[in-house]
């Protein structure tokens, strides 16, 4: 995504001229005196500011002195400018994000949308076609108003909601039974290619692409009992859909933009009960993240990362059937003994798509209270013996 003011920070090598350094280090009282010419009442018009290189003089009460040139770097948010506080802002003002997979107000997709909105991004969402009417109605009637609240008290604004079924790339891929399905009646242009074209026609371009999609029709079945159809359906909806989205949206993404997806630890470790090919789909998603990071980075200067999030009791996750037990397990065994919130994943996503993560791509970022690091369950009955 395009660089904000924070990305323009420059580092200048310090050139020290040190006198009596050992004596200075043992001094108990050090006074910092900044050369005249640095105004303490400077006004910063942007969200961050890099001060000029100035000569700084340190005086100790033991007559030691240290004189050298040093960089003074200030990163101040627009709000902290007024209060005089320091901060390192995530500034997404002027950026436009498309989040695929938002159908209610309690999942990771919604939390990511809120975090990006709080940072100033314009929000577009793609909602599964059969859930579109309920989602838009709830949004219009204010049922989501409480969960739309941002840190500054305002409400998250969703500029436009697009119908989307990421299982289908083009209209030609849609079978007749789906076209005739009453749950799709009244909606049009909802394949991946059509949605990308609609966004281009409506807004021209985007800076951020978020994939928050997963589905496995046989997720409750062990892998040994999963059918070929169920396995391929999980791969199609949960991992190839990311490839398809990036493939079709990349041409309208501004250079410097970023894309993220959501994965799960089942991609690399056995989670009994997380079946139907979903573990395979997440493994494919993580592998694709690395390859897409290279291809999209070289082709469009787009960064690609995925967040391995811990268990959340969302409506979608409840389809697995044992999500509450997974949450309890995480709370008991993770290094950080606390419940994981959707907002924490949203905040990590905001960082990953911001200029602060401008050198981060092809990575799996764990946001799970550290559960992924554990090789032993603390609540195991074996440990009680």
Description:
With 385 residues, the protein is of the alpha/beta class. It is 31% helix and 19% strand. The protein is built from eleven helices and 13 strands. It has helices at 21-25, 78-83, 108-118, 129-140, 176-179, 192-203, 228-249, 278-300, 323-333, 342-352, 381-384; strands at 15-19, 30-34, 49-50, 54-60, 65-70, 73-74, 96-100, 122-128, 158-164, 206-211, 253-263, 303-309, 364-367. The chain has a seven-stranded parallel beta sheet, sandwiched between helices. Strands 1-5-4-2 form a four-stranded antiparallel beta sheet, with no helix packed on it. Helix 3 crosses helix 10 (342-352), helix 6 (192-203) runs parallel beside helix 7 and helix 7 packs parallel to helix 8. The longest helix is centred in the C-terminal third of the chain and has 23 residues, at 278-300. It is globular. The model is unreliable at 1-84 (pLDDT under 50).
